[in-house]
Structures are given as C-alpha cells and as structure tokens.
Design goal:
Layout: H1 4-14, E1 19-21, H2 26-38, E2 42-45, E3 62-64, H3 69-82, E4 87-93, H4 96-111, E5 115-122, H5 130-139, E6 143-147, H6 152-161, E7 171-173, H7 180-183, E8 196-197, H8 206-215
Parallel strand pairs: 1-2, 2-3, 4-5, 4-6, 6-7, 7-8
Helix pairs in contact: 1-2, 3-4
Length: 225
C-alpha cells in the first residue's frame, strides 16, 4: 500500500542503506522516489514499467529491470492484431500503469489498422464491476483487453457471468495479471482457457530455477525480467 511505503523507506534510510530494491509497482515507486533519490540512495525496481519513469528527474539513481510499457503496449497491439482482431474494448486500472498502457496500446493498435471500441477506466477498489463489464459487452467488441492487477480475477468472474469471458470472447492480459495466481481464483480449471497476454520477461536457466526452488519450493512463476 502507498501509505506503508513511505514509512518503510524512512526506516531503511534511517539505517543508512546504500540501495533499496523496489518498489515493484509504478504507483508505489512514484510515491517514494523523491525521498529516496534526494537522500542520494540508489533505487532499483524490478517491475515498475510506466513511461512516466523514463524521463523522471531521478538524479540518475533509479534503475529498472523491466522495459517501459511503451514496448509492452506495442507488442500487445501486434499480438492482438496478429490474431485478426480489429475492434477491441479496453478495461484499465485507474493509475499510471493502467492508463498509460491503455494509451500506448491504443496508439500502436490503431497504427496496426485496428480500432478501440471503448476504454473504461475503473476503480480497483470498487465493490462491483457489473457496470464496467456491461459497458464492454454493450460495445460488442471482437476482443477485450484487461490492464490491471489482482482485481482482474473479479472482473473476469463478472465477464464470465455476463457471457463475455475467455470461453466466449478473446481476452488479453498483461504482466500485472498474467500469472498462475490468477487461475487460482477460479474453481473451474478451464475458466480462463484461451486467455492470452504479454509480459516483459524472459526464460531463465534451469540452474537458476533450481536455486530459486531451494529458497522456496512452492514458487510457480519462474521468470526473470
């Protein structure tokens, strides 16, 4: 949570650390980056992909392992267009990650000859996503793009209820939600069959995977940014 992050950073800086690993998300990174860099401390995020950070005044102290979402937006657009879809509806989380990725996808998708039937920017803390999903269904797109995090499972459940889930309509995700944890929220093992997406990751060696599993044998998402 953003409220916790500043407290954690203050505690770390009080210990005179030379570098801080994190935060993983763009929103949390932005909430603490000034405090960290003004203290002259290196900040290394493994997964903050927003293009806002590309030219941020970080005093040369912010480093990222993952590329900007400008790249992911382009790759996702090429993937969707390559599958033959031309009229896509976007459901995007209301933060820098979701809205900027929606913009980057739209720019690239339209350049690939596609069109965006509509973009719904949603509140991840909403108690229901019925209206959000209803807007997507009403637009009658030939595919839906989900740009979000853990709340994606709730949106997908609503999509399935409204008969526009992955078994009825092509659904695409991104690094924020394309993980094994997503499927764990569905009793039906095949509920998400056919869903595709992109992640700014690469395969890692078996040797490195073995080392990770020695630390935590229950790891299932074994990739490296």
């Amino acid at each position: 949570e953003n409220g916790v992050a500043p407290k954690t950073v203050s505690t770390l800086l009080a210990q005179d650390v030379d570098a801080i690993i994190g935060a993983p998300s763009t929103s949390v990174t932005l909430s603490v980056i000034d405090t960290v860099t003004n203290a002259g401390v290196v900040m290394f995020s493994p997964a903050a992909t927003s293009k806002t950070l590309s030219d941020y005044d970080d005093q040369g102290l912010l480093f990222r392992a993952a590329p900007s979402d400008i790249l992911q937006g382009a790759v996702l657009a090429e993937t969707v267009a390559g599958d033959g879809h031309r009229d896509v509806y976007i459901l995007a989380l209301n933060d820098d990650y979701g809205t900027e990725l929606a913009d980057d996808f739209t720019t690239s998708f339209e350049a690939n000859g596609g069109s965006v039937a509509g973009t719904e920017i949603y509140d991840p803390k909403a108690t229901t996503f019925a209206d959000v999903v209803g807007s997507a269904k009403q637009a009658e797109p030939d595919a839906v793009l989900l740009l979000g995090f853990d709340e994606t499972s709730k949106i997908l459940a609503e999509m399935i209820d409204q008969d526009i889930g992955p078994s009825s309509l092509p659904v695409y995700g991104v690094d924020g939600n394309m993980g094994n944890a997503l499927a764990e929220n569905f009793a039906d093992a095949g509920a998400l069959e056919g869903m595709k997406g992109t992640t700014p990751l690469t395969d890692i060696s078996d040797d490195f995977k073995d080392q990770l599993l020695e630390i935590d044998a229950e790891l299932v998402d074994l990739h490296s940014a």
